[in-house]
Structure to design on (111 residues):
């Protein structure tokens, strides 16, 4: 994933994602739990993240059901990501990033 800034493209590496995931905690900000690694995201965390970015997956009950799949499919379409019913590591990484940005003070317009 790249970020655009002043005409430059910056690569967001897994290490940067981990730093960004724990940064609010390090700063003493109160935020819901965010997975440290998209590959280790549980279904409950996936549901919390989807709800946090405005895609209602139903209750965060840890069940990968039709509501969760619909919400994840809608998120994938909104973020131009492939989705075949099973979330790819890339899709989970995009979701994690969108969730982190949605929890920041500035928010995320594309979330």
């Amino acid at each position: 994933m790249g970020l655009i800034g002043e005409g430059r493209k910056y690569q967001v590496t897994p290490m940067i994602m981990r730093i960004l995931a724990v940064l609010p905690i390090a700063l003493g900000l109160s935020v819901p739990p965010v997975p440290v690694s998209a590959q280790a995201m549980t279904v409950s965390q996936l549901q919390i993240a989807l709800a946090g970015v405005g895609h209602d997956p139903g209750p965060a009950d840890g069940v990968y059901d039709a509501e969760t799949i619909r919400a994840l499919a809608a998120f994938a379409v909104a973020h131009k990501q492939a989705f075949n019913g099973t979330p790819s590591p890339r899709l989970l990484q995009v979701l994690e990033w969108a969730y982190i940005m949605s929890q920041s003070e500035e928010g995320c317009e594309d979330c």
Q: What stands out?
A: Residues 1-6, 31-39 have pLDDT under 50 and may be disordered. The radius of gyration is 14 Å.
